[in-house]
Amino acid sequence: MAGPQARLPPEEGASRGGRLARLPRRAPLWPGGALRSRRDRRKGRDEAVAQVTGATRKRTKVAIVGGGPTAATAPLADRSWEIWTFGRAKRPVARYDRWFEMHSVPQLKALRGDRRTKMRYPEYWRFLRRLRCPVYMQKRFRDIPASVPYPLERAIQEFGRCFTSTVSYMIALAIMEGCTHLGLWGIDLTDQEEYLYQRPAVEYLLGVAAARGIAVVMPPSCTLTVPLHPRPVYTKVLYGYDWDHPGAWWNRWKKNQRKEKAGKENQGREKTKAAPAAGKGEGGAPRRKRIRKRTRKRTKKEGKKTKRARRGRTPVRRRR
Predict the structure, then answer these.
(1) What pLDDT, in 10s, does the model give residues 78-89?
(2) Mean pLDDT for the chain?
(3) What is the DSSP letter of 71?
(4) What is the pTM of this model?
């Protein structure tokens, strides 16, 4: 039986008696299936990352699969396509070779959604820890063994500051790795304001891929276009990395939402103050009550006048 510091391939983990060898508890499993000790993690991290992520070999076909309706037509059964995906859906695609999560931990904690279909932070973080495929993130996390830092500096040098979505990061990485076919399924970027903001950068990168000789494949119902002469897209705020930037579109959207809500509340208060109640006069009181108040005032005045007349001060003028 091998010692706790040795690597044990999955097929060599059985002892003479036919029972499985007991593995050390604290030695985490790398996505390839082999055990990695602390010494291996320290010395061979770069080599292991390159081996797992496939940075040393060329990818021919890359399929980026989202959560849209056209995801059902993705070539999941075709092993010549490598499947890249993302998202917090409780039912992800049946097969995926790489996972992308470009949000930071505070962002993941702040994200919300329908609990029936979306995973929130604690559940989603446990899901990422269980993944055996490479997980591209902003940095490497020790509690996520398969996490791989995204090459942001290289992507910015090659394409500029154009990253407004997770899909844009994925397309840029596929181009940098030299794929021959790039397909998008389940990604339409329509309807919502967020998608309309992300659409120009995605189309720009698709145009760059086509200009470099990469075959861009999309379903017929996809509304994205591939420009013949792509124009660079610039953004001050990088998606995921600049979450707290005041110029981020999501922060501006939240600010506008608060302003609209405050304006509606002020308008409602002004209307309630100015508008009379239903069935009432301009003063806000019913007409009959107003008449009664007037008659009471008149009787009080007449009573005072009669008292003064009795004293001999002023004559009384009776109302007919």
Answers:
(1) 999 999 999 888
(2) 75
(3) G
(4) 0.63
